[in-house]
Specification:
4 strands; mainly alpha; single chain
């Protein structure tokens, strides 16, 4: 049985992974996705429409905590995920919805470097404020992978207030 802290951390990881899909412009061409009328294959497609289709797919997969804000950012509230258990099946739902919405990959990839830099800034903040052995984020995914044996929940909780003004990177514990 997972502790409330582990469930919350998994939920936050899901939130952050979803955030990686946000903040893109509508000026790149994308493969056809759900919602495309098919009239102009290869024409510029609205990234926000791609994100909306992905969120709708996630809801269809039972991931109702995944939401899109008025700015188009995708998130999954940690409290809702922790209380409802909706983190279960998240990875499988992502695979299904990524396959159904191939344009989401472009949306994710467009801002990868920005997210890697943001993750590095967050890790640096955490190191300065009491968690000196935080690992660097993965440069290929911007995900912070923390080995279970070195994860310290007390340190993690202690750095949150100091680093809360920075975007929290996606992370996993236990690898």
């Amino acid at each position: 049985m997972r502790s409330r802290t582990e469930r919350a951390l998994m939920a936050v990881a899901a939130v952050t992974a979803a955030l990686v899909m946000s903040g893109c412009s509508a000026e790149d061409t994308a493969p056809r996705v759900a919602g495309d009328d098919g009239s102009s294959a290869g024409r510029t497609q609205d990234d926000n429409a791609i994100r909306r289709a992905w969120v709708t797919c996630m809801h269809g997969q039972g991931q109702n905590g995944v939401q899109q804000d008025k700015d188009g950012n995708i998130f999954m509230p940690a409290a809702g995920a922790d209380d409802s258990g909706s983190v279960a099946g998240y990875e499988a739902a992502v695979k299904v919805c990524d396959a159904r919405n191939p344009g989401i990959r472009q949306v994710k990839d467009k801002n990868l470097q920005k997210f890697v830099e943001q993750a590095r800034a967050w890790v640096e903040c955490g190191r300065k404020h009491g968690y000196p052995d935080l690992p660097d984020p993965d440069p290929e995914s911007a995900i912070l992978i923390i080995p279970r044996q070195s994860f310290d929940a007390a340190k993690w909780d202690a750095i949150q207030p100091a680093c809360s003004k920075l975007p929290l990177p996606g992370y996993r514990i236990g690898e």
